[in-house]
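Q: Predict the bound structure with histidyl-adenosine monophosphate.
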Amino acid sequence: MSTLKAVRGTRDLLPPETALWNRIEATARSVFARYNFGEIRTPVFEDTTLFARGVGEETDIVSKEMYTWEDRARAQSEKTQSLTLRPENTAGVVRAYIEHGLGESGQLQKLYYIGPQFRRERPQKGRYRQFSQIGAEVIGPPSAGSESPLRDAEILEMLATLLDELGITGWTLHLNSVGSSADRERYNQALRAALVPVVAQMCPDCQRRAETNPLRVLDCKVPADQPVIDTLPVIADSLDEASQAHFAQVTAALDAAGVPYTRNHRLVRGLDYYTRTTFEFTHGGLGAQNALLGGGRYDGLSEMLGGPRAPGIGFAVGEDRLVLTLLALENTQQDEKAAAFVAPLGEALNAAALALARELRRSGLRIELGEGSFRLKKSFEAADKTARQIVILGEDELQSGILTVKNFSTGIQTKVPRAELAVFLLNSGQSLEPEGGRSTPGAPLVVPPARIQKNAIHK
Ligand code: HAM
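A: Predicted complex:
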């Protein structure tokens, strides 16, 4: 008889890794309490219509990824109903806000949740069919200040605090505005016009979306379509004065609070309910699935679901991805030695080596920087004393974007594309921790790598 296994895209979390999950959740609860959020728990399945109307029929989530079934009536008093395992929790929270009349208090509702979500995506590292989100929503009548750009900035500042307290360094905040629904209508028209001459070269999904919902073309991941997408107009040019002013106030408040961000014109997010501010925090240590979290404003969602006017903003952190990032960072940071020594071949490459070291350090890696006047032998000697690997940067490497990395403990030399270097160095980091990890109270929890590999079953 064949043995039964966890279903593809799902996995068991075992000790000691579960202790890390508990620490993350406790930190999140403590940060959310300081910002005056309370917890909401909504059902794991909902009426399918909620997601079709809230998230949008044309999104990948609704059109391809939902676990939906017909729940047959079992009694005369029941109706057969289409039900769906929640692929995300914002629609459920707004449904609960409407159902319980939470807006009637006139106060802002600040609600957080922690729990499983389900999407039928192709599983890979950091992408599962059952995954956990830690999210929060701020929603209320406009008279309670729910539209204020200060709410957006406060949420982003809270997220920066959460990541800091978890010990996650090296994140990047990508920020954009997708405007009001009128702005988006203008932008959709501009996109439709710009797509006419090029759409025939694009993938079938883009060809369909160019007709039904051109904004979704920007979510396309097909590599061959990317150069075409880069030539399309950006949404910033379609924002009216009020949307521009809203965005300017969000960025001014972030500047005042010292939260760094970069403007990303392509960040329209894969859900239809967003208005104005959209954002994602990415981390270089995650590889292809590099979004640690995502969110934005959804000023029309409550009305789309038949409720009162109730602008809101929120986010969801991928808890599985937080765990992966923390484990990768722990692996490199526990070590006495730097993850890598960057060795420029010649003084003319010193500046390029500094830029490369900066790039790697921004991904949370500990990096030692060499000096171009060293001969290669001297660089190797210095590197062997201070780092676990050496990254050689010569003129050829700079031009080709392919770097040579030598690992001192295995002796293996590998050619790595620059864009993948941080992930490569993070993942080749081997902790020197003994089994059982560090047990100093209050110290970051370490899960020994040997145990992790066994437990983190990526299907
Ligand atoms: P989302 O961008 O679809 O947004 O998901 C948020 C985060 O959940 C992602 O950045 C990622 O870290 C994680 N995530 C998504 N899919 C998977 C998967 N298959 N496996 C592992 N992790 C995954 C939302 O869900 C919105 N509800 C966020 C929001 C709240 N917007 C406003 N309020």
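A: The first helix runs from residue 17 to 34.
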